[in-house]
Amino acid sequence: MRARRCPVVAAALSASLVTTISMARAECDPSKPSELLASRFEVHGDTVYDKSTDLTWIRCSYGQQWIEGGGCSGSVKLLDWDSAMGLHLQDDADWRLPQRDELQSIVASNCKKPAINEEVFPGTPSIQYWTSTASGPSYAWVVFFRTGMPTWNFLKTTPFAVRMVRTGR
Hints:
Elements lengths: L1 H22 L3 E2 L8 H4 E4 L2 E4 L4 E4 L6 E3 L3 E3 L7 H5 L14 H5 L6 E2 L15 E7 L4 E6 L4 E7 L9 E3 L2
Antiparallel strand pairs: 1-7, 2-3, 3-4, 4-11, 5-6, 8-9, 9-10
């Protein structure tokens, strides 16, 4: 009986941790320049277009819901790499897992915990996010939004967060 309850308790604690982490405010260094919201990003409700990369991003992490005027709500759903690669949103095949350089492009170098512009991407937890860039048969690149650093050596079977992207508007 105990063995059956442990995974449920662990899953509940994990979901609680992701929600708690996402509530934290980023630590931004005011001495480092930050990109102005209006100069780079066009926000359209639950999506944002990045004029510098010609990419449109879903503002919330996979598993969260966009609430107009309230940002991202709910818990981030963690997926293994194969599940993340097969994910399509709103029955639209244009939404996909970003390449390493694409995901790295939304890192805010002046912020940590999370290393992202929270006005554009609210509720982003300080955890690892999958990219579509493999680094071998069993490994793929992630971007760790606690620091903004990319890392290549995570097993594809490890569950991490996902943020979807598409090319163009």
